[in-house]
Amino acid sequence: MCIRSSRRPLLVLVAGVLVAGASMLVVGSATSGQVEARLEERADRVEAVLGLQLRQYEATSRAVAGLVRHAQSQADFAAQVSALGLADELPGIYALNVTTRVTPSELAGYLADERASGSAGFTVRPEPSGGTMFVIDRVSPFQPNAGALGFDVMSNPDAAVAVRRAVQLGVPSLSDALTLVQEPGDQTGLVMYLPWYAEQGELAGVTSVVLRGQDFLDALSLGDVGVTVVDLSTSSGARALGTIAPAGMDPDGMSTKRVIEVYGQDWELTLVPPAGFASFAERSAAIVVPLAILALAGLGAWLVAAIVRSEEHARQQVEQRTGELVDVNARLHQALAAKDEFLAVLGHEFRTPLTVIRGFAATLRAGRVGPVTKDVDTVLDRIEAQAAKLDGLVDDLLTAAKLQEGRVEVRAELVDVLRLLEELADAHHGQLGTVVVEATSDLFVEVDRAHASR
Protein backbone atom coordinates (compact mmCIF):
# COMPACT_ATOMS: atom_id res chain seq x y z
CA MET A 1 0.00 0.00 0.00
CA CYS A 2 1.47 3.36 -1.01
CA ILE A 3 0.96 6.40 1.23
CA ARG A 4 1.56 9.83 -0.27
CA SER A 5 4.07 12.17 1.40
CA SER A 6 1.38 14.74 2.29
CA ARG A 7 -0.32 12.24 4.58
CA ARG A 8 2.81 11.17 6.44
CA PRO A 9 2.89 14.14 8.91
CA LEU A 10 -0.64 13.24 10.03
CA LEU A 11 0.37 9.63 10.62
CA VAL A 12 3.46 10.76 12.49
CA LEU A 13 1.34 13.08 14.67
CA VAL A 14 -1.16 10.31 15.43
CA ALA A 15 1.69 7.95 16.29
CA GLY A 16 3.23 10.61 18.54
CA VAL A 17 -0.04 11.15 20.41
CA LEU A 18 -0.49 7.42 20.92
CA VAL A 19 3.09 7.01 22.12
CA ALA A 20 2.77 10.00 24.47
CA GLY A 21 -0.48 8.67 25.90
CA ALA A 22 1.02 5.25 26.43
CA SER A 23 4.09 6.81 28.04
CA MET A 24 1.88 8.74 30.47
CA LEU A 25 0.32 5.45 31.55
CA VAL A 26 3.70 3.74 31.83
CA VAL A 27 5.32 6.62 33.73
CA GLY A 28 2.29 6.96 35.98
CA SER A 29 2.45 3.23 36.71
CA ALA A 30 6.18 3.47 37.37
CA THR A 31 5.64 6.43 39.72
CA SER A 32 2.93 4.48 41.54
CA GLY A 33 5.30 1.53 41.82
CA GLN A 34 8.01 3.77 43.27
CA VAL A 35 5.58 5.16 45.85
CA GLU A 36 4.46 1.63 46.76
CA ALA A 37 8.10 0.57 47.19
CA ARG A 38 8.74 3.55 49.45
CA LEU A 39 5.62 2.73 51.45
CA GLU A 40 6.87 -0.84 51.89
CA GLU A 41 10.19 0.56 53.11
CA ARG A 42 8.28 2.74 55.61
CA ALA A 43 6.29 -0.35 56.69
CA ASP A 44 9.58 -2.16 57.39
CA ARG A 45 10.68 0.81 59.49
CA VAL A 46 7.38 0.98 61.38
CA GLU A 47 7.55 -2.75 62.15
CA ALA A 48 11.14 -2.41 63.41
CA VAL A 49 10.31 0.63 65.59
CA LEU A 50 7.25 -1.12 67.05
CA GLY A 51 9.35 -4.15 67.94
CA LEU A 52 12.04 -1.99 69.55
CA GLN A 53 9.48 -0.03 71.59
CA LEU A 54 7.77 -3.21 72.81
CA ARG A 55 11.13 -4.69 73.85
CA GLN A 56 11.69 -1.57 75.95
CA TYR A 57 8.35 -2.18 77.68
CA GLU A 58 9.43 -5.78 78.19
CA ALA A 59 12.61 -4.53 79.89
CA THR A 60 10.45 -2.36 82.18
CA SER A 61 8.34 -5.43 83.04
CA ARG A 62 11.46 -7.33 84.02
CA ALA A 63 12.61 -4.42 86.18
CA VAL A 64 9.26 -4.43 87.98
CA ALA A 65 9.57 -8.20 88.53
CA GLY A 66 12.93 -7.58 90.15
CA LEU A 67 11.56 -4.87 92.46
CA VAL A 68 8.57 -6.78 93.75
CA ARG A 69 10.66 -9.21 95.84
CA HIS A 70 11.97 -6.27 97.88
CA ALA A 71 8.72 -4.32 98.24
CA GLN A 72 7.12 -5.32 101.53
CA SER A 73 4.05 -3.18 100.98
CA GLN A 74 2.17 -1.16 98.42
CA ALA A 75 3.83 2.01 99.69
CA ASP A 76 7.32 0.47 99.37
CA PHE A 77 6.60 -0.63 95.82
CA ALA A 78 5.24 2.78 94.74
CA ALA A 79 8.22 4.54 96.33
CA GLN A 80 10.78 2.32 94.58
CA VAL A 81 9.09 2.66 91.18
CA SER A 82 8.96 6.42 91.62
CA ALA A 83 12.62 6.60 92.72
CA LEU A 84 13.74 4.64 89.65
CA GLY A 85 11.39 6.54 87.32
CA LEU A 86 10.15 3.31 85.74
CA ALA A 87 6.69 4.67 85.01
CA ASP A 88 8.20 7.82 83.50
CA GLU A 89 10.90 6.08 81.46
CA LEU A 90 8.71 5.29 78.45
CA PRO A 91 5.74 7.17 77.01
CA GLY A 92 2.32 5.58 77.03
CA ILE A 93 2.67 3.74 80.37
CA TYR A 94 -0.59 4.10 82.27
CA ALA A 95 0.22 1.81 85.19
CA LEU A 96 2.72 -0.74 86.47
CA ASN A 97 1.00 -3.53 88.38
CA VAL A 98 2.04 -6.68 90.21
CA THR A 99 -0.26 -9.64 90.79
CA THR A 100 0.26 -12.47 93.25
CA ARG A 101 -0.83 -16.03 92.51
CA VAL A 102 -3.29 -17.19 95.19
CA THR A 103 -5.26 -20.41 95.52
CA PRO A 104 -8.57 -20.49 97.44
CA SER A 105 -6.90 -22.34 100.33
CA GLU A 106 -4.25 -19.60 100.59
CA LEU A 107 -6.68 -16.69 100.31
CA ALA A 108 -7.32 -16.11 104.04
CA GLY A 109 -3.61 -15.99 104.90
CA TYR A 110 -2.92 -13.80 101.90
CA LEU A 111 -5.56 -11.24 102.95
CA ALA A 112 -4.15 -11.22 106.48
CA ASP A 113 -0.64 -10.54 105.18
CA GLU A 114 -1.88 -7.69 103.02
CA ARG A 115 -3.75 -6.06 105.88
CA ALA A 116 -0.68 -6.49 108.10
CA SER A 117 1.46 -4.70 105.53
CA GLY A 118 -0.75 -1.63 105.69
CA SER A 119 -3.30 -2.31 102.96
CA ALA A 120 -6.32 -1.62 105.14
CA GLY A 121 -9.63 -2.89 103.84
CA PHE A 122 -7.90 -5.00 101.16
CA THR A 123 -10.43 -7.35 99.58
CA VAL A 124 -10.42 -9.56 96.54
CA ARG A 125 -12.85 -8.59 93.79
CA PRO A 126 -14.76 -10.42 92.43
CA GLU A 127 -15.33 -13.24 94.89
CA PRO A 128 -13.17 -16.28 94.15
CA SER A 129 -14.76 -18.84 91.86
CA GLY A 130 -12.69 -21.76 93.11
CA GLY A 131 -9.73 -21.55 90.69
CA THR A 132 -6.28 -20.01 90.99
CA MET A 133 -6.37 -16.21 91.16
CA PHE A 134 -3.83 -13.61 90.10
CA VAL A 135 -4.70 -10.70 92.40
CA ILE A 136 -3.35 -7.19 91.82
CA ASP A 137 -1.69 -6.17 95.10
CA ARG A 138 0.84 -3.56 93.94
CA VAL A 139 0.15 -0.59 91.64
CA SER A 140 2.10 2.46 90.56
CA PRO A 141 1.23 5.24 90.38
CA PHE A 142 -1.24 4.77 93.21
CA GLN A 143 -3.68 7.31 91.77
CA PRO A 144 -5.75 6.87 89.70
CA ASN A 145 -5.01 3.10 89.89
CA ALA A 146 -5.93 2.45 93.54
CA GLY A 147 -9.23 0.93 92.45
CA ALA A 148 -7.35 -1.90 90.72
CA LEU A 149 -6.03 -3.28 94.04
CA GLY A 150 -7.60 -6.62 94.83
CA PHE A 151 -8.79 -7.28 91.28
CA ASP A 152 -8.40 -10.88 90.08
CA VAL A 153 -7.22 -10.56 86.47
CA MET A 154 -8.29 -14.17 85.79
CA SER A 155 -11.90 -13.06 86.15
CA ASN A 156 -11.51 -11.20 82.83
CA PRO A 157 -11.63 -13.84 80.05
CA ASP A 158 -9.46 -11.83 77.62
CA ALA A 159 -6.85 -11.04 80.27
CA ALA A 160 -6.88 -14.68 81.44
CA VAL A 161 -5.84 -15.87 77.96
CA ALA A 162 -2.78 -13.60 77.93
CA VAL A 163 -1.84 -14.48 81.54
CA ARG A 164 -2.01 -18.21 80.81
CA ARG A 165 0.15 -17.76 77.71
CA ALA A 166 2.76 -15.82 79.71
CA VAL A 167 2.77 -18.35 82.58
CA GLN A 168 2.84 -21.48 80.42
CA LEU A 169 5.54 -20.25 78.03
CA GLY A 170 7.48 -18.14 80.53
CA VAL A 171 7.61 -15.21 78.10
CA PRO A 172 5.99 -11.76 77.81
CA SER A 173 2.45 -11.83 76.46
CA LEU A 174 0.13 -9.05 75.25
CA SER A 175 -3.56 -8.79 76.00
CA ASP A 176 -6.20 -7.97 73.42
CA ALA A 177 -6.87 -4.29 72.81
CA LEU A 178 -9.15 -3.21 75.66
CA THR A 179 -10.85 -0.15 77.15
CA LEU A 180 -9.07 1.54 80.06
CA VAL A 181 -12.10 1.93 82.33
CA GLN A 182 -10.43 4.46 84.64
CA GLU A 183 -9.54 6.77 81.75
CA PRO A 184 -12.02 9.38 80.45
CA GLY A 185 -13.67 8.56 77.14
CA ASP A 186 -13.19 5.38 75.15
CA GLN A 187 -9.42 5.16 75.70
CA THR A 188 -7.99 2.00 74.11
CA GLY A 189 -5.06 0.30 75.73
CA LEU A 190 -3.33 -3.03 76.11
CA VAL A 191 -1.46 -4.90 78.84
CA MET A 192 1.89 -6.71 78.69
CA TYR A 193 2.10 -9.61 81.19
CA LEU A 194 5.33 -11.23 82.39
CA PRO A 195 5.64 -14.02 84.99
CA TRP A 196 7.70 -13.36 88.13
CA TYR A 197 9.09 -16.00 90.45
CA ALA A 198 9.81 -16.36 94.14
CA GLU A 199 13.36 -16.81 95.36
CA GLN A 200 12.87 -20.60 95.33
CA GLY A 201 12.12 -20.38 91.60
CA GLU A 202 8.40 -21.14 91.84
CA LEU A 203 5.78 -19.02 90.05
CA ALA A 204 4.66 -16.16 92.30
CA GLY A 205 2.50 -14.11 89.93
CA VAL A 206 2.70 -11.82 86.92
CA THR A 207 3.70 -8.21 86.40
CA SER A 208 1.63 -6.09 84.06
CA VAL A 209 2.47 -2.92 82.16
CA VAL A 210 -0.71 -1.09 81.15
CA LEU A 211 -0.27 1.03 78.01
CA ARG A 212 -2.40 3.72 76.41
CA GLY A 213 -2.68 2.72 72.77
CA GLN A 214 -2.67 6.20 71.24
CA ASP A 215 0.18 7.46 73.44
CA PHE A 216 2.13 4.34 72.54
CA LEU A 217 1.83 5.14 68.82
CA ASP A 218 2.41 8.90 69.20
CA ALA A 219 5.82 8.19 70.73
CA LEU A 220 7.07 6.21 67.76
CA SER A 221 8.09 9.25 65.62
CA LEU A 222 7.30 7.47 62.36
CA GLY A 223 7.83 10.48 60.10
CA ASP A 224 5.73 11.60 57.14
CA VAL A 225 3.24 8.73 56.75
CA GLY A 226 -0.05 8.01 58.42
CA VAL A 227 -0.17 4.80 60.44
CA THR A 228 -3.08 2.89 61.93
CA VAL A 229 -2.52 -0.17 64.13
CA VAL A 230 -5.42 -2.60 64.52
CA ASP A 231 -5.47 -5.59 66.88
CA LEU A 232 -6.98 -8.47 64.88
CA SER A 233 -6.93 -10.94 67.80
CA THR A 234 -9.63 -9.51 70.08
CA SER A 235 -12.54 -11.78 70.90
CA SER A 236 -15.03 -9.09 69.91
CA GLY A 237 -13.47 -8.39 66.52
CA ALA A 238 -10.72 -6.12 65.21
CA ARG A 239 -10.04 -3.01 67.28
CA ALA A 240 -7.77 -0.06 66.49
CA LEU A 241 -5.07 0.73 69.03
CA GLY A 242 -4.57 4.20 67.58
CA THR A 243 -3.83 6.28 64.51
CA ILE A 244 -1.11 8.70 63.53
CA ALA A 245 -2.36 11.06 60.84
CA PRO A 246 0.02 13.84 59.74
CA ALA A 247 -1.53 16.78 57.88
CA GLY A 248 -2.49 16.15 54.27
CA MET A 249 -3.47 12.49 54.58
CA ASP A 250 -5.77 11.15 51.89
CA PRO A 251 -7.75 8.32 53.54
CA ASP A 252 -9.07 7.19 50.14
CA GLY A 253 -5.68 7.30 48.40
CA MET A 254 -2.92 4.76 48.06
CA SER A 255 -2.11 2.67 51.15
CA THR A 256 -0.29 -0.49 52.14
CA LYS A 257 -1.25 -3.07 54.76
CA ARG A 258 0.81 -5.60 56.66
CA VAL A 259 -0.03 -8.13 59.40
CA ILE A 260 2.65 -8.72 62.05
CA GLU A 261 2.80 -11.00 65.09
CA VAL A 262 3.72 -9.31 68.40
CA TYR A 263 3.90 -11.21 71.69
CA GLY A 264 1.07 -13.57 70.77
CA GLN A 265 -1.19 -10.99 69.04
CA ASP A 266 -1.81 -10.30 65.35
CA TRP A 267 -1.63 -6.61 64.48
CA GLU A 268 -2.49 -5.05 61.13
CA LEU A 269 -0.46 -2.01 60.09
CA THR A 270 -2.01 0.36 57.54
CA LEU A 271 0.24 3.06 56.07
CA VAL A 272 -1.16 6.02 54.12
CA PRO A 273 1.16 8.55 52.40
CA PRO A 274 0.48 12.30 52.43
CA ALA A 275 -0.29 14.20 49.25
CA GLY A 276 3.36 15.23 48.82
CA PHE A 277 4.81 11.78 49.44
CA ALA A 278 5.88 11.36 45.79
CA SER A 279 9.07 13.31 45.10
CA PHE A 280 9.18 16.30 42.75
CA ALA A 281 11.15 14.23 40.25
CA GLU A 282 8.54 11.45 40.34
CA ARG A 283 5.67 13.91 39.85
CA SER A 284 7.50 15.80 37.09
CA ALA A 285 8.33 12.62 35.23
CA ALA A 286 4.64 11.93 34.59
CA ILE A 287 4.40 15.22 32.63
CA VAL A 288 7.86 15.91 31.22
CA VAL A 289 8.59 12.47 29.83
CA PRO A 290 5.41 12.16 27.70
CA LEU A 291 5.90 15.68 26.30
CA ALA A 292 9.47 14.89 25.38
CA ILE A 293 8.38 11.68 23.70
CA LEU A 294 5.70 13.55 21.74
CA ALA A 295 8.25 16.10 20.50
CA LEU A 296 10.72 13.45 19.46
CA ALA A 297 8.05 11.31 17.81
CA GLY A 298 7.71 13.79 14.94
CA LEU A 299 11.44 13.52 14.23
CA GLY A 300 11.93 9.82 14.69
CA ALA A 301 8.73 8.03 13.66
CA TRP A 302 9.42 8.11 9.90
CA LEU A 303 12.89 6.64 10.46
CA VAL A 304 11.66 3.77 12.63
CA ALA A 305 9.49 2.14 10.00
CA ALA A 306 12.35 2.08 7.47
CA ILE A 307 15.07 0.64 9.66
CA VAL A 308 13.28 -1.51 12.24
CA ARG A 309 13.28 -4.65 10.12
CA SER A 310 16.95 -4.37 9.20
CA GLU A 311 17.87 -3.59 12.80
CA GLU A 312 15.89 -6.57 14.05
CA HIS A 313 17.60 -8.88 11.58
CA ALA A 314 21.02 -7.50 12.46
CA ARG A 315 20.27 -7.77 16.16
CA GLN A 316 19.26 -11.40 15.82
CA GLN A 317 22.42 -12.17 13.86
CA VAL A 318 24.59 -10.38 16.41
CA GLU A 319 22.89 -12.12 19.33
CA GLN A 320 23.31 -15.51 17.67
CA ARG A 321 26.99 -14.94 16.84
CA THR A 322 27.64 -13.40 20.24
CA GLY A 323 26.08 -16.37 21.97
CA GLU A 324 28.20 -18.77 19.92
CA LEU A 325 31.38 -16.81 20.62
CA VAL A 326 30.61 -16.59 24.33
CA ASP A 327 30.03 -20.33 24.47
CA VAL A 328 33.23 -21.14 22.55
CA ASN A 329 35.23 -18.66 24.61
CA ALA A 330 33.92 -20.18 27.85
CA ARG A 331 34.87 -23.70 26.74
CA LEU A 332 38.31 -22.45 25.65
CA HIS A 333 38.93 -20.82 29.00
CA GLN A 334 37.86 -24.01 30.77
CA ALA A 335 40.19 -26.10 28.63
CA LEU A 336 43.13 -23.72 29.16
CA ALA A 337 42.51 -23.63 32.88
CA ALA A 338 42.34 -27.44 33.02
CA LYS A 339 45.57 -27.72 30.99
CA ASP A 340 47.41 -25.20 33.19
CA GLU A 341 46.25 -26.99 36.30
CA PHE A 342 47.30 -30.36 34.88
CA LEU A 343 50.77 -29.12 33.91
CA ALA A 344 51.29 -27.45 37.27
CA VAL A 345 50.30 -30.64 39.10
CA LEU A 346 52.40 -32.76 36.74
CA GLY A 347 55.49 -30.58 37.22
CA HIS A 348 55.04 -30.64 40.98
CA GLU A 349 54.48 -34.40 41.10
CA PHE A 350 57.61 -35.08 38.97
CA ARG A 351 59.89 -32.67 40.80
CA THR A 352 58.98 -33.92 44.28
CA PRO A 353 60.49 -37.41 43.80
CA LEU A 354 63.37 -35.87 41.79
CA THR A 355 64.26 -33.72 44.77
CA VAL A 356 64.20 -36.79 47.01
CA ILE A 357 66.42 -38.78 44.58
CA ARG A 358 68.94 -35.94 44.35
CA GLY A 359 68.94 -35.57 48.10
CA PHE A 360 69.72 -39.25 48.67
CA ALA A 361 72.40 -39.13 45.96
CA ALA A 362 74.02 -36.13 47.65
CA THR A 363 73.90 -37.95 50.99
CA LEU A 364 75.61 -41.02 49.49
CA ARG A 365 78.22 -38.90 47.70
CA ALA A 366 79.03 -37.10 50.96
CA GLY A 367 79.96 -40.48 52.50
CA ARG A 368 77.37 -40.24 55.24
CA VAL A 369 76.13 -43.77 54.60
CA GLY A 370 79.49 -45.40 53.96
CA PRO A 371 82.69 -45.14 51.95
CA VAL A 372 82.23 -43.89 48.38
CA THR A 373 83.97 -46.46 46.17
CA LYS A 374 84.66 -45.99 42.53
CA ASP A 375 81.69 -48.16 41.57
CA VAL A 376 79.40 -46.23 43.90
CA ASP A 377 80.65 -42.97 42.43
CA THR A 378 79.88 -44.22 38.92
CA VAL A 379 76.37 -45.24 39.94
CA LEU A 380 75.81 -41.86 41.57
CA ASP A 381 76.93 -40.12 38.38
CA ARG A 382 74.31 -42.04 36.42
CA ILE A 383 71.59 -41.37 39.00
CA GLU A 384 72.32 -37.64 38.93
CA ALA A 385 72.50 -37.61 35.12
CA GLN A 386 69.14 -39.37 34.78
CA ALA A 387 67.60 -37.05 37.37
CA ALA A 388 68.89 -34.06 35.43
CA LYS A 389 67.50 -35.54 32.22
CA LEU A 390 64.07 -36.06 33.78
CA ASP A 391 64.16 -32.53 35.19
CA GLY A 392 64.95 -31.24 31.71
CA LEU A 393 62.01 -33.19 30.26
CA VAL A 394 59.67 -31.54 32.78
CA ASP A 395 61.09 -28.15 31.79
CA ASP A 396 60.60 -29.01 28.12
CA LEU A 397 56.97 -29.96 28.78
CA LEU A 398 56.26 -26.69 30.56
CA THR A 399 58.19 -24.73 27.91
CA ALA A 400 56.15 -26.32 25.12
CA ALA A 401 52.95 -25.24 26.86
CA LYS A 402 54.30 -21.71 27.22
CA LEU A 403 55.28 -21.66 23.53
CA GLN A 404 51.70 -22.47 22.54
CA GLU A 405 50.47 -19.60 24.64
CA GLY A 406 53.18 -17.20 23.51
CA ARG A 407 54.52 -16.78 27.04
CA VAL A 408 58.15 -17.91 26.43
CA GLU A 409 60.72 -15.14 26.75
CA VAL A 410 63.61 -15.64 24.29
CA ARG A 411 67.01 -14.14 25.11
CA ALA A 412 69.00 -14.57 21.90
CA GLU A 413 72.81 -14.23 21.75
CA LEU A 414 75.58 -15.03 19.24
CA VAL A 415 76.98 -18.48 19.99
CA ASP A 416 79.85 -20.40 18.41
CA VAL A 417 78.22 -23.39 16.71
CA LEU A 418 81.17 -25.67 17.32
CA ARG A 419 81.22 -24.93 21.04
CA LEU A 420 77.42 -25.28 21.29
CA LEU A 421 77.52 -28.71 19.66
CA GLU A 422 80.35 -29.81 21.93
CA GLU A 423 78.34 -28.71 24.98
CA LEU A 424 75.32 -30.63 23.73
CA ALA A 425 77.44 -33.74 23.13
CA ASP A 426 78.90 -33.55 26.63
CA ALA A 427 75.46 -32.99 28.16
CA HIS A 428 74.07 -36.09 26.44
CA HIS A 429 77.21 -38.23 26.77
CA GLY A 430 76.32 -41.88 27.07
CA GLN A 431 72.84 -41.40 25.65
CA LEU A 432 73.58 -40.95 21.96
CA GLY A 433 76.54 -43.36 21.52
CA THR A 434 79.57 -42.03 19.69
CA VAL A 435 79.13 -38.39 18.59
CA VAL A 436 81.50 -36.78 16.10
CA VAL A 437 81.29 -32.98 15.91
CA GLU A 438 82.58 -31.32 12.75
CA ALA A 439 82.13 -27.61 12.10
CA THR A 440 84.18 -24.62 11.12
CA SER A 441 85.48 -22.59 14.00
CA ASP A 442 84.15 -19.27 12.70
CA LEU A 443 80.45 -20.28 12.36
CA PHE A 444 78.11 -18.36 14.72
CA VAL A 445 74.37 -18.51 15.21
CA GLU A 446 71.98 -16.36 17.22
CA VAL A 447 70.12 -18.63 19.70
CA ASP A 448 68.80 -18.74 23.26
CA ARG A 449 71.52 -20.82 24.97
CA ALA A 450 69.22 -21.96 27.79
CA HIS A 451 66.67 -23.48 25.39
CA ALA A 452 69.22 -24.68 22.80
CA SER A 453 71.06 -26.75 25.42
CA ARG A 454 68.01 -28.98 25.69
Characteristic terms for this protein:
454 residues; alpha+beta; 4-stranded antiparallel β-sheet; 11 helices; 12 strands; 53% helix; elongated
Describe the protein's topology:
Elements: H1 8-68, H2 74-84, H3 86-89, E1 93-102, H4 107-116, E2 133-140, H5 142-145, H6 157-169, E3 173-174, E4 178-179, E5 188-197, E6 203-212, H7 213-218, E7 226-231, E8 239-244, E9 256-262, E10 265-272, H8 280-365, H9 374-405, E11 413-416, H10 417-427, E12 444-447, H11 449-452
Antiparallel strand pairs: 1-2, 1-6, 3-5, 4-5, 5-6, 7-8, 7-10, 9-10, 11-12
Helix pairs in contact: 1-8, 8-9
Q: Show unreliable segments.
A: none
Ends apart, CA distance between termini: 78 Å
The helix tally amounts to 11
- Element-level helix/strand string: HHHEHEHHEEEEHEEEEHHEHEH
Structure write-up:
The strands form three sheets. Strands 1, 2, 3, 4, 5 and 6 form a six-stranded antiparallel beta sheet that branches. This protein has a four-stranded antiparallel beta sheet with strand order 8-7-10-9. A two-stranded antiparallel sheet has the order 11-12. Helix 1 crosses helix 8 (280-365) and helix 8 (280-365) runs antiparallel to helix 9 (374-405). It has helices spanning 8-68, 74-84, 86-89, 107-116, 142-145, 157-169, 213-218, 280-365, 374-405, 417-427, 449-452, and strands at residues 93-102, 133-140, 173-174, 178-179, 188-197, 203-212, 226-231, 239-244, 256-262, 265-272, 413-416, 444-447. The chain is built from eleven helices and twelve strands. By secondary structure, the protein is an alpha+beta fold. Strand 7 and strand 8 (239-244) form a beta hairpin. 19% of the residues are buried. The two termini are 78 Å apart. The model has no long low-confidence stretch (mean pLDDT 77). The chain is elongated and about 130 Å long. 53% of the residues lie in helices and 17% in strands.
